[in-house]
C-alpha cells in the first residue's frame, strides 16, 4: 500500500507541475504569480519531478514551437514523422537538451517571458543530482516494497516526465476525436482526462491555446482547471482578464 501511494503521488504531483507550471504558466502565461510563488513552484517542480526534472525555459521554447509548427516537419515532437514513440522521444530529448544547455538559441518568437533560475538550472542539469534522486527512489522501495514485482515500477519513477510527455505527444496527436479543425492532427484522446490531468485534450487546447480550461464540451472534464481556480481564489496566482 505504501508503494502504491508513493507511486501515485509521484505520478500526479509530477504531472501537476508539468501541466500547471511548465505548460500553462511557463509556456503560455495563462496566469501570473509573484516572484516568491514562481520560485516556490520552480522548486516544487524540481522536487516532485526529481530525476526527470524538465527545465522550464527549454520546455517553454519547445512547446511554443509545437504550437507554431503543429504536425509539420518543424514540430519538435509530432508523432507523424516517427515510426514509433521511442524514436519520437529520443528526437525530442536531443532538441530539449540543446535548449536546456544553451547549445542553440531559439527563433526570436519563442524567446523570453519564461521563468529562469540559473543556479538551480545548473544544479539540476548535473547527472549527480539526478542519480541521487534515483537512489532515493531505490532506497524507498528497499524500505517499503513487499513484493519483488514492485521494483519494476522504478524505471517509471526514473523517467516520469519523459513518459508523461511521450504519452501526451503521441496519443494526443494520433488517437481520439476532434471537435475542432485546427489544420493539424490534434485529438482529444479521452473526454474525462483524470489520468493525464487534462493534457490529453490536445484538440481543444490547440483550438484555444491560451484557455485555462482544456475542456470545451459539457461531457469533458479538465481536473487541473478547478485547482487553478482555487489557487486564484487564494491569491497565489492572478488570472488574466
User: Which strands sit side by side, in order, in the main sheet?
Assistant: 1-2
> In terms of per-residue confidence, which ranges show pLDDT below 50 for 5 or more consecutive residues?
none
What's the main sheet like?
2 strands, antiparallel
- Strand element count: 2
Question: What is the average per-residue confidence, as pLDDT, rounded to a whole number?
Answer: 95
Rounded to an integer in angstroms, the radius of gyration calculated over CA atoms is: 18 Å
What is the overall shape? globular
Secondary structure: helix percent: 40-55%
Order of helices and strands: HEHHHHHHHHHE
Note the gap between the termini. 44 Å
Label the structural class. mainly alpha
Number of helices: 10
Q: How much β-strand is present in the residues?
A: under 5%
Summarize the structure in words.
The structure is a single chain. With 241 residues, the chain is mainly α. A two-stranded antiparallel sheet has the order 1-2. Helix 1 packs across helix 2 (35-49), helix 1 (2-27) packs across helix 3 and helix 3 packs across helix 4. The model has no long low-confidence stretch (mean pLDDT 95). It has helices at 2-27, 35-49, 56-68, 85-100, 118-124, 127-144, 154-158, 160-171, 202-207, 224-233, and strands at 31-32, 238-239.
Amino acid at each position: 500500500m505504501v508503494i502504491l501511494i508513493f507511486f501515485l503521488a509521484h505520478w500526479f504531483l509530477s504531472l501537476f507541475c508539468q501541466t500547471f507550471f511548465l505548460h500553462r504558466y511557463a509556456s503560455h502565461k495563462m496566469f501570473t504569480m509573484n516572484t516568491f510563488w514562481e520560485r516556490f513552484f520552480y522548486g516544487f517542480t524540481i522536487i516532485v519531478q526529481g530525476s526527470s526534472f524538465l527545465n522550464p525555459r527549454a520546455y517553454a521554447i519547445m512547446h511554443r514551437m509545437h504550437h507554431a509548427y503543429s504536425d509539420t516537419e518543424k514540430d519538435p515532437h509530432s508523432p507523424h514523422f516517427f515510426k514509433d514513440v521511442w524514436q519520437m522521444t529520443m528526437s525530442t530529448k536531443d532538441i530539449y537538451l540543446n535548449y536546456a544547455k544553451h547549445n542553440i538559441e531559439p527563433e526570436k518568437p519563442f524567446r523570453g517571458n519564461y521563468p529562469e533560475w540559473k543556479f538551480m538550472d545548473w544544479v539540476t542539469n548535473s547527472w549527480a543530482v539526478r542519480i541521487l534522486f534515483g537512489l532515493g527512489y531505490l532506497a524507498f522501495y528497499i524500505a517499503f516494497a513487499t513484493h519483488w514485482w514492485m521494483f519494476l515500477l522504478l524505471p517509471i519513477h526514473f523517467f516520469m516526465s519523459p513518459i508523461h510527455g511521450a504519452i501526451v505527444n503521441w496519443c494526443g496527436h494520433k488517437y481520439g476525436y476532434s471537435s475542432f479543425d485546427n489544420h493539424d492532427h490534434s485529438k482529444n484522446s479521452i473526454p474525462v482526462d483524470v489520468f493525464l490531468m487534462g493534457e490529453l485534450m490536445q484538440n481543444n487546447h490547440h483550438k484555444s491555446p491560451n484557455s485555462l480550461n482544456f475542456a470545451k464540451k459539457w461531457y469533458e472534464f479538465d481536473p487541473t482547471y478547478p485547482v487553478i481556480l482555487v489557487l486564484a481564489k487564494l491569491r497565489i496566482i492572478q488570472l488574466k482578464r
